[in-house]
Design brief:
Blueprint (H helix, E strand, L loop, with lengths): L6 H9 L3 H22 L3 H20 L9 H23 L22 H20 L2 H12 L4 H8 L3 H22 L7
Length: about 200
């Protein structure tokens, strides 16, 4: 399928019965959506379920006419995913269960880390753990912006659309998140570099 076709055109063709168009939409956006879900949900099976539920809700909404295109399809999909993540957290909280699974995010995708030894691997794992812990200490609104920006590779405009705030507010939240993370690093005397 032609990559130049807009999301809106693909949705229109899907509504008219071309199922392949929706496959193209999923392929186009699956990496960002799944990365976003996976950073919040540390259980791989649950993350996959939420990913599938996200696109099932998208299909239902599109087919029932509850989506009107405003050029923000991905933001709308991410908002659905976000709401499903929140629902999942509420269910876990109600059942008082906590997942102890850990997730190793590839924060530093750099050739500098490609030729590593066991000590460097250990240090990298510790850095990732420290970064996750710092992000976990942030207020919810700041944590969300950091995850969307650095793990889902979204622009501040996309983040503003997903979170329902202005771009300036999203930028401000990122600024305060960085200030708070810097303070945590200083307080805990963390070094987040590999020599």
């Amino acid at each position: 399928m032609n990559k130049m076709i807009s999301d809106c055109e693909l949705l229109t063709m899907f509504i008219k019965g071309n199922e392949r168009c929706f496959d193209e939409l999923i392929n186009r956006h699956k990496n960002k959506v799944f990365a976003y879900i996976n950073l919040y949900i540390r259980d791989q099976a649950l993350a996959e379920d939420i990913f599938q539920d996200t696109f099932l809700k998208v299909i239902q909404s599109v087919k029932t006419g509850r989506y009107s295109d405003n050029g923000k399809f991905l933001s709308w999909v991410m908002r659905i995913a976000h709401n499903l993540i929140i629902d999942s957290f509420r269910r876990v909280k109600q059942h008082n269960t906590v997942s102890n699974d850990s997730y190793e995010a590839d924060l530093f995708n750099s050739s500098k880390f490609s030729d590593t030894n066991i000590e460097d691997d250990y240090i990298k794992k510790q850095i990732k753990k420290d970064i996750r812990a710092m992000i976990g200490c942030l207020p919810d609104d700041q944590r969300e912006v950091v995850i969307l920006r650095h793990y889902s590779d979204m622009s501040f405009k996309e983040i503003a659309d997903i979170t329902g705030v202005s771009i300036n507010t999203a930028l401000g939240r990122m600024r305060y998140a960085l200030i708070n993370m810097r303070k945590i690093m200083e307080d805990k005397k963390l070094c987040l570099t590999v020599n």
